[in-house]
From TrEMBL:
Pfam families: SWIM
InterPro entries in the cross-refs: Znf_PMZ, Znf_SWIM
Keywords from the named record: Metal-binding, Zinc, Zinc-finger
Taxonomy, superkingdom: Eukaryota
Protein name per its UniProtKB record: SWIM-type domain-containing protein
Gene Ontology terms for molecular function: zinc ion binding
Amino acid sequence: MLFPNAKTRHCVRHLHANFKKAGFQTKELKDLASGDRYQVECGLGSQHVVDLVEDSCSCKNWDLTGIPCMHAVVVIHLKDEYPETYVKT
């Protein structure tokens, strides 16, 4: 479980399946200028930049809530890391 105290619980396997259904192309994750900035393409013409050093995503959800957004969770999962370590307290 990603966030055991959350009202809605999600596991990475289900998140990944939902991303695939929604049109996310995980194979299209591209490493940008540095090793911790990623471009996530999700559907036609929809892109977001995830920065794991700054704990930030261009969708601004992570910035506002302190909890990694769905774009960040995909990148974190692909790096074989745990999203819990990226939650701001």
